[in-house]
């Protein structure tokens, strides 16, 4: 069930409750226009491609007129944008930027920025910071390599949690409650998921303090990821990752880069724990 479907189900249950209980409901007020806009944002944020007006109307279950009016407002406010060639709509990273203004995430990105930039300058490898969003990871900050050659990831980039080193690293350090919640979502989406293998991987990642594995997205690239922890190294808040490619102009080995990345992750974690 998608977020849009869950939202509608919750609203429908609340209205049914109101009808059955003489007008009393846990949903005190209704804002249909707001619900339409949220339906659009939640739907587009889960998709890896853009959608036309007609496709959105069909997928969300609204008329094209309703969807068009909502899209016009969302586009004017910078929450969605249109592809130049097709006029199809996609979500922007504005909603992410709004979320990152929360003190928790603002402290994370501001604390990590200087450490990430120093890592990139000294190793000449880019790095990025990712957080978990249910069964996905979202990149919230990055530092570029001073070299012209390398792999970089844009802020706002999303991928399934199990498809990235960042996601697997975060999953390995989640507390049991968080981990069970995420794995339950993953099991509904992927019937063949091997929980025992994930448990074994967790022990290995925790023992090494990092994960170094071939990218599941780009051939020839290795994901090197380390956890960012806070509150006395008990809560995982993010993962710092560098996409490693062996270059002629940079002879650092994976192990060397991984060691430097662990140092950077530890420094960020220690600074967060004092905030």
What features would you describe in this structure?
It is built from 10 helices and 8 strands. It is an alpha+beta fold. The model has no long low-confidence stretch (mean pLDDT 84). It folds into 2 domains: 90 residues, Winged helix-like DNA-binding domain superfamily/Winged helix DNA-binding domain (Arc Repressor Mutant, subunit A, Orthogonal Bundle), CATH 1.10.10; 177 residues, 2-Layer Sandwich (Beta-Lactamase). The protein has a 6-stranded antiparallel sheet, sandwiched between helices. A two-stranded antiparallel sheet has the order 1-2.
What is the residue-averaged pLDDT?
84
Order of helices and strands: HHHHEEHHEEEHHHEEEH
Structural class: alpha+beta
Number of domains: 2
Terminus-to-terminus distance: 38 Å
In what order do the strands lie side by side in the largest sheet? 5-4-3-8-7-6
Sheet with most strands:
6 strands, antiparallel
Instruction: Outline the low-pLDDT stretches.
Output: none
CATH arch. level architecture of the largest domain: 2-Layer Sandwich
> Which percent range fits the helix content?
40-55%
- The CATH homologous superfamily of the largest domain is termed GAF domain
Query: How many DSSP-defined strands?
Result: 8
By CATH, the topology of the largest domain is: Beta-Lactamase
